[in-house]
Write a structure and sequence with these properties.
Number of strands: 11
Radius of gyration: 14 Å
Order of helices and strands: EEEEEEEEEHEE
Largest sheet: 7 strands, mixed
Strand content: 35-45%
Mean pLDDT: 90
Distance between the termini: 38 Å
Helix content: under 10%
Length: about 130
């Protein structure tokens, strides 16, 4: 059963912007923590942004803070990732993930892979110089 589906990945010039979207099924909609991860060539998967609807603001990895945002008007059926001022090192496969429903906002904000039980297929982002 496919419960998450990313879209919006593309090739873009450095300094440009891109908006990703993650469609969330009714099954995974019960999760209060949804996050974005990415993986570059030869790298481990890295949490970049996440939001817990039960409390607090979205959280961001230091590498993307100030450039990436999860829009505040994201609905329960989808979550977006707005990426601005893109750099070549932002290139990689971007994944949407949903955490187990019981995890806390603090655990959600840590963006650790083992907190997330549902994953999309990924969407490719390529940033050129």
């Amino acid at each position: 059963q496919v419960t998450l589906a990313e879209s919006g990945g593309d090739s873009v010039q450095a300094g440009g912007s891109l908006r990703l979207s993650c469609a969330i099924s009714a099954y995974t909609r019960a999760s209060r923590c949804v996050a974005w991860f990415r993986q570059g060539p030869g790298d481990q998967r890295e949490g970049v942004a996440g939001v817990h609807t039960g409390g607090g603001q979205p959280t961001y990895a230091d590498s993307v803070a100030g450039r990436f945002t999860i829009p505040r008007d994201s609905g329960d059926e989808s979550v977006s990732l707005q990426m601005n001022s893109l750099k070549p090192e932002d290139s990689g496969m971007y994944y949407c993930a949903a955490a187990r429903p019981e995890i806390s906002p603090w655990t959600c904000a840590r963006l650790q892979e083992d907190s997330f039980g549902y994953w999309g297929q990924g969407t490719q982002v390529t940033v050129s110089s």
